[in-house]
Write the structure tokens for this entry.
Amino acid sequence: MTGNCDNKCEKDQRMNNFEYYNPTRIVFGAGMIAELGRLVPDDAKVLLTYGGGSIKRNGVYAQCMEALKMVEVLEFGGIPPNPTYEVCMRAVDLCRREGITFCLAVGGGSVLDGTKFIAAAVPFEGDPWLFLEKRGEVVPKDALPIGCVLTLPATGSEMNPFAVISKEATREKRAFDSELIQPRFSILDPKTTMSLPRKQVRNGIVDAFVHVCEQYITYPVNTPLQDRQAQAVLKVLIEEGPKTLTDPFDYDARANVMWAATSALNRHLQVGVVQDWSTHMIGHELTAFYGIAHAESLAIVLPVRWRLDKKRKGRKLSQYAREVWGVEPTKKDEEAADEAIDKTVTFFNSLGMPTRLADYGIDARECAQKVRARFNERGSAFGEHGDIDGNRAAEILLQC
């Protein structure tokens, strides 16, 4: 620290104050779905939520029902990828009508996010979309307890208090958070992931990877432990992720990717650090307007976001280059940053993940105009410096 640094500069170089609490019980490993009977309250009336029905084909549903045979269970299926307000509200009506007391999400992050919204909406007297539209101003006061059987490692929703919901009527995708929607427990059995389609596995790896980057690639605030934890998660995804695509039945690779994806967004990496999240916010609009998967949107936006802010992110990008990708320490920081960005794109492509808007037939100019208008209308500004507004977002998208 130089002697002429002002107070703001001095503060910016220190680990931020933080409070960390994570009450989710993780039950990890093969055969652990049988533990549901112990984890769900004996007097619960359970709503079991799921997506398109793959859990009934791969045996997960049967395992759950066997473990829950001592409690009353109702089902609600059909929660879509990017869970929608409209579908979730049908489940809310069911819960209210039937007196549901416990929600069990069986599936991936979309099912769990939808279930979190349902759990918070059931006791709420107003329109629960306000949780998202007026995030932080209108908050849940109560929620049904939630448990999870995870079948798709990607979002980290199984161990955090966040949820993202889309609204078909307005083509919006927004997030909310509350400690009340943190799962009481999550069962992670790597074997449940072995029948996943290749595309979902790929998306999960990229989703988790970008989660880490949004918390790590900003600017230094003297957090060597958090930096090395982030680097460890990224390296595991790079080393183990491709193995799950090469051999879907590699239990060890599945287990490592599953735990890495959970660790990527259980809030442990973000304590004390500066965070970005602008790639996610721009990506949400790509999903809302064009329907591409969440991870697909992130793979498009992240490399350009980095390239356009390479100077201010330079120290973290060069650290990432050397510690994660093994770029030679003799290279200048700018050269190392460029190489790291290129290696990231190559990694995404190696998983079969496109990284350009044109790959999805999306016109960059039209896309930029839509996102600029929406961000400016809302007064949105994101990023570690709070300056990724509508105009900056448009600039990024024009180069995607």
